[in-house]
Each structure stands twice: as structure tokens, then as C-alpha cells.
Amino acid sequence: MRTPVRTHETHRSDEAISAYGTARSTVEGTPLSPDDLRKIDAYWRASLYLCVGMLYLKANPLLREPLTLEHIKPRLLGHWGSDAGQAFTYIHFNRLINKYDLNAIYISGPGHGAPAVLSQAYLEGSYSEVYSDKSEDLAGMQRFFKQFSFPGGIGSHATPETPGSIHEGGELGYSISHAFGTVFDHPDLITLVMVGDGESETGPLATSWHSNKFLNPITDGAVLPVLHLNGYKINNPTILARISHDELKALFVGYGYTPYFVEGSDHESMHQAMAATLEHCVLEIRKVQQEARRTGRAIRPRWPVIILRSPKGWTAPREVDGHYLEGFWRAHQIPIADVATNPSHFNLLESWLRSYRPEELFDEKGRLLPELKALAPTGNRRMSANPIANGGLVRRPLDMPDFRDAAVKVEKPGATLAGNVPTLGNLLREVTRLNMHNFRVFGPDETQSNRLDALYDVTKKVWLAEYFPEDADGGELAPEGRVMEMLSEHTVEGWLEGYLLSGRHGLINSYEPFIHVIDSMFNQHAKWLEKCDELPWRAKVSSLNLLITALVWRQDHNGFTHQDPGFLDVVANKSPSVVRIYLPPDANSLLSVADHCLQSVNYVNVIIADKQVHLQYLDIEAAIEHCTKGAGIWAWASNDQGAEPDVVMASCGDCPTMESLAATALLRQHLPDVKIRFVNVVDLFKLVPHTEHPHGLTDREFEALFTPDRPVIFNFHAYPWLIHRLTYHRPHQHHIHVRGYKEQGNINTPLELAIQNQADRFSLAIDAIDRMPRFRVTGSSARETLLNQQIACKNRAHEFGIDSPEITNWQWPF
Fold first, then answer.
1. What angle do CA 122, 52, 531 make, to 5 degrees?
2. Which residues of 61-78 are buried (b: 16+ CB within 10 A; e: fewer)?
3. Can you give 363-396 as a three-state secondary structure string?
4. How far, in Å, CA of 622 to CA of 615, rounded?
5. Alpha helix positions (H), 296-354
6. Could you give the 3-state DSSP secondary structure of residue 260?
């Protein structure tokens, strides 16, 4: 007879925290009938058999003949440690999907935890539906086993090739932030996320627990985290597995959760405990959501979190040759690695494989028995087949306003002042207004600082914590906001990635010096997209759009630590199939670039734009033409029409463009007969040969801009060697002389900072004179004058702390 479910606190601070023994759980109850228990345990054994098979076998998949070395992979790769706990949790949640018709996806946080989720996808049939050669029979199972961690096959993470996965887990720390990103604006979705206890030691994961303060129970779904305490990393204990229950409970209560413990190793009691606990948590989630939606009050409850303590490598042999395996760090990777050279260990492996009794789980053809197959959900209710985890399937294109409506009026180039990023803010305001359920703007703490506060005309910042009266005076807080801010670049980047991968749209804005915090996250996402491009069944998702502002050339007040434009070097390392870099020179160019990026798919678009007021150069139609080309000659700033230029002045970036234009004006002032061509680059990858990047120019197109033999003085936003790297295959690339940031700076005026890096107007003009053969002698007087002006400007900055009005108020004079 089943006992009623109730909750109580069983733990004392001095109680043992072992993973072994009969189940101890916060929620009591035995919701599984004997037949339910038998079948769930059998399904679990089938999953674990598949996991071990992936690690070891390339043939004889169901041991229908005695195991031999010919059946074993010659190189054993993969991880076993978290598989049993993950599969255990996944299978029990399947029961609740069927019982309550839940819409759910699963995120595997532990590193290298792929066997657990791959086994589920195979048992549920979704794997064979995507990969027809991995059929649900003996031949298909053999191919399924062999491909794992095998050349030409798949990796040991939950990579894009894994149906139902949006989170590879190759870099630890982002499972919770990705999970919360998936449930924003998905009110009926529950994301079940398994958090490894090694993973929980990372800074990003520890911070991301605060995501519960941003979850609106009216409009959002719910995340059900399961912290998997299996006790060990590669060969070291994990912190959270070695602290008392009181301390662990206090930690999660402090984070704002209600923790529920499930601990032990006894199969029967652990099945009952997990079934009761998961069901209790699902019902608590539904209760909170129903109450909030009935009353219209977006309260912040103490959302449930499950703490599952089970042995590492659960169900493997407990000891091998007198050394602990199951329940110890040795179970982390391949549990028995020397089976090819140690006959006793080979026999132990066969005994271990047969302990799951595969003959009781699969029929003669190698298919899972029908009574076990019936335990899994069907269709899109399978977590391995939920279309939300293939987000392009549920993605709807943005309803885009006409970006021309936000344009700055430019009657004369270089004479109008406007804020570039504030102008973009006006466009984002309208995008938000038209897409209030599938578009969000993310950032650490800088939306207003980055001059995007036009957003607050139509929305607020999400906030589910406490409110003070002062918040009404510009706090811009609301439970239903579309702006997501938390002072953790890791967390907001993770939210955005989860939001995009589950079918929505967004943009992240961040200060340039601190975008490096997410270097490795960007790397992982770019790799994810690159792999997705190779999979025809993966529908394209919205691009990851990064607006990088508070730029190096305007960090004169924050000093040297805030001067670092090196994120572009990181981006340029990634595959040209997925990365794009744009440096629009003015507001209208920024509008055109943003309109394109917001509608693109399967890219990482990096947009570099300063938030301060700048000169404007192009009216909206000219900006559209210029951005469509990606690089072009500005005829209004050039005087070489119909003639050979003496020099090409080139720029890439808003601040460098102004200095380069000012240098051009100085040259024309001091050398009246000089012929100058002015080239501006918006799309950085235009510089790369077309054979190496889809945006690249042909050599003929490149020479049409930069000439085959004239000196090019190229003023670049970031580190100058990046331009040399991108153009090194170009014929005559030795004529390109790049100026940019060279790690020189402190508390400077804008011009003084440029002077220190030789990226100012005077340095550029002097460099041009030095490189034009016919002015090396006749230009000496002009060169001396420019050098004197540069010295005077530097001295003035040191004396008065600001640049002179003729510098700060400079306009294009022609």
C-alpha cells in the first residue's frame, strides 16, 4: 500500500554525509507500485548498459556471444562518473511528463556527461529518427556504441549532435544560466537541469543561482535544478559534498530556494524517494504558477532545488584490486582502463556489463521491450525531441520597425553631432515595443550607462526582489520588464544564449574592457553554432548579438585598466562561417548594421560602437549603401578623383575615423596639391581574402579600394597587428601601415590617449608625409608644424586636463 507524501527535515548537523545506504529524503512517500518500480529500475538498467557500452564496445552490442578483445574499442575515451545519477533523474522525470503532460527539456551540466543523455535519446527513439543508421536494433546499436568518442563519430559532451541538447557542458559553469534563459517567456516550460558538484565550484555557476530573482511566475516557465553530489571531481573531493547538511541547506535557503534532499545508494528506496521528491517539486511549481496567474501578482517564491547525493560511478564495481572505484574519484572517467592488457580486469568488465542483464531488457532484434518503451513520453513530449531544444523550430522572425525612422539627419558630412549608441537605443525601443514576448536586452549593469535608456519608454528592468520607495525615482524596475541586468557578464551571457537557443531573440551590451569576462563563453557558443551548421536537422537560431561600447578611446577617465580592445582578436580566431565584426563609423551606419544583425541567424555578430556624442558623416541612404558594401571610398573626404592618390587614408571604428579624417584635413591644409583617397571599413572581414571568409574582398576589389602600390595609413580601433594578420595574404600588403591601440594609456584626455598610441591626427599626418615619396623633402616644413602642434596639445592636456576647443569642436572643413 502506498504511503502519503509528506515533507520533513531528517538531517542533523552531525549526521553522516555518505552517499551510501538506504535512501534519506526530505520528502517521504512510496508513489511507485511494485510493477512501476520494477519497470523503472529495468529502464534505468537499460540506460546504464548503453552508457557502459558506449565507453567500451565497438561490436557484440548485447553480448549475444562471449566478449573478446575484438569487441572492445582500442582506445577508451569518455566519462562514467555522473551517468547513473543523470539517467536516474531523467527517467523519473519522464514519469511526471506522462502523468502531468509536462512540457520539459533537460540540460546536462556535468562535464562529459553525454552517455546519460545519449542513452535516453536512443531509448526514446529520437536518436534513430535523426540518425537512421543508428536504428533500434542490433546493427544500429553497434553503430551507436562505436561512434562514441571515436574518430568520425561524436564527442563525450552533450554536443549539438545530441537530440534534445542545447548545452554541451564542455566548459563548466553555465548550466543554470542557460536553463533560466530557456524558460523566460516560455510559461509552460519546465527545464530540468542537472548541476555537477564539480561544476558548482565555478564562479559562473555559483553566481547563476541568483537567476531565481528574475523569474516571473506569470509569464515565465520554471527551472528545476538538481545538484548532483557524487562527491568527486577528477581526483579530488568536491566542496559541497563535504559540508554538513545544515550548511548546505543554509546555502540554498540563502540563495532563495527550498532544498529537498535525496541521498543514498539502495536502488529500491532511492527510486521511491526520487519519484516522491520530483513529483512534490513539480506540484509546488504548478501551485506557484497557478496562484500567480490567478491573482496577477508576480511574487518571488522559494523555488525548489533537489540535492541528489549518490555514489560517483553508481552501479560500477565498488572495488578493483583492493582500490575503491564506485563512490570514489577513480570512477570519473573510464572506470577500468586496462582491459586490453589485464585479463582479470577484462573479465571484470564483462561481468559488470552482464550485471545489467541486457537479455531481460532488449528483444531478439535488439529493441527495447515494449513494456519498457511505454515508460518514455512520446512525440514532442520526449525531452530528447522537444522542439524548444531545437530552437529554430519554434523561432518566429522579429517584427522589425523601419530603422530609417530612427535616423539622424545629416546635411553635411562631419558637421553634425549625435550619440551613436543612443540612436541605436531608439531603434531597440521600437523593436522591443513590437516584440514584447520574444525579444530581450541583456547586460551586466550598464543599459543606462551605455545610453540605451530609450528602452525605458516601453519597458523596465526585470526585478522580482524587494522594492524601495526610491526605486520610483528612475529605478526602472518591474517584474515584467524586458531588460535583464545582473552584474555578472557570465550570467547574462548565459541567459541570452539559453534564450536564443530556445527560439527567441536578443542583444547583450557590455563595456569593452569587461567583455573579456565571456571570452570562453563566446568561444563555446561559436563552436556550437559551427557544429549546428553541419547538422541539417538543426534549425537555425537567432544570432548572438554583442554590442560592445564604452570603448578604449573614450576610457581616458577610467585609465589603463579599462583600455583593452582585444576581444576582437578572440573573435577573429573563430570559424568564418559563424563570426562577424562590424565597426560602424556613425549613428546611421550603426542603425543599418543593427537592423541586419537582429534579423540574421546562426552568427555571432560583434558590433563596436562608442556611447558618447560623435560627428556624423553619412545620411541614412548613404549609410545603407556603405554598410551593404562593408568597405568603401568616401568621395566627399577624398580629392583623388580621376588621379593617382599619393596616399590612402583608411579607418575602421568611430573614434579612429574622426582622427583619420582630421589628419586628412591637416594634410590637405598644409600640402594643397596632395591627392588623398579616404577609405572606411565597416565590416572587418572585408579585409580577409574572399577565399578565407565569405565576406572577404577579391584581390581586385581590395586593390580598387587601397591601390596596388600606394601607402595606406590605416587607423584601427583595436590592436594594429590584427589588421596585419587579416591582410597578410594580400598582394602588396607591405604598403599597409596600421595604427591602433598599443597598450599605452592612463588618465588621459582623448587626444592625448591617441597621441600616446600614435593614432592621433598629427601622428597619422606625419606618417603619411614620411611615406609619400614626393613629400619627403618638400613636406618637411609641414611635418615640423604638425609635430609642434602635437607637442602643444599634449602640454595643454597636462596643464589644464582637457583638450583645446579646436580639438573637441573639430568639424570636417571642406
1. 50
2. bbbeeebeeebbbeebeb
3. CCCCCECHHHHCCCCCHHHCCCCCHHHCHHHCCC
4. 15
5. 343-354
6. strand
Sign of CA dihedral 694, 698, 702, 705: negative
DSSP codes of every residue in 133-184 = TS-SSHHHHHHHHHHBTSTTSB-SS--TTSTT-S---SSTT-HHHHHHHHHT
Give the dihedral of Cα atoms 34, 38, 44, 47; nearest 10 deg.
-150
The three-point CA angle 262-266-271 to 5° equals 55
User: What DSSP letter does each residue of 767-780 carry, written as one string?
Assistant: HHHHH-GGGTTTTH
Euclidean distance between CA atoms 623 and 629, whole angstroms: 10
Question: Which residue carries 520574444 as its cell?
Answer: 438
Written as nine digits, the cell of 668 is 590637405
Do 518 and 571 touch, CB atoms closer than 8 A?
no
Confidence of residue 10 (pLDDT cuts 50, 70, 90): very low
58 DSSP assignment: S
Per-residue burial over 424-457, b = 16 or more CB atoms within 10 Å of its CB, e = otherwise: bbbbbbbbbbebeebbbbbbbbbbbebbbbbbbe
Cell readout for 812 is 570636417
Number of C-alpha atoms within 13 angstroms, CB side, residue 149?
Answer: 24
Matching residue, cell 582585444 = 566
Question: Across residues 702-712, what is the average pLDDT?
Answer: 97
Q: What is the distance between the alpha carbons of residues 233 and 97, in angstroms, rounded to a whole number?
A: 31
pTM value? 0.96
- Measured in whole angstroms, how far is the alpha carbon of residue 312 from the centre of its chain? 29
HSE of 334, CA atoms in CB hemisphere, 13 A: 20
Task: Report CA-CA distances (Å) from 629 to 308, 621, 625, 725, 730.
Answer: 56, 13, 6, 22, 19
What mean pLDDT do residues 177-198 have? 97
Task: Yes or no: say if 420 and 611 are a contact pair by the CB < 8 Å rule.
Answer: yes
Could you tell me if 607 and 587 are in contact, meaning their C-beta atoms sit under 8 angstroms apart?
no
Sheet of 712-716: strand order equals 631-633, 676-681, 647-652, 712-716, 736-739
The answer to whether 234 and 329 have CB atoms below 8 angstroms apart is yes
CA–CA–CA angle 423, 427, 429 (5° rounding): 110
- Mean residue pLDDT of the chain comes to 95
Cβ-Cβ contacts under 8 Å for 188 (sequence gap 6 or more): 103, 221
What are the cell numbers at 158?
Answer: 552533450
pLDDT digits (tens, 9 = 90+) for 53-86: 999 999 999 999 999 999 999 999 999 999 999 9
CA 687 to chain centroid, in Å, comes to 27
Q: Determine how β-strand 544-549 pairs with β-strand 579-582.
A: unpaired
The answer to whether 109 and 120 have CB atoms below 8 angstroms apart is: no
Cα separation, 17 vs 297, whole angstroms = 40
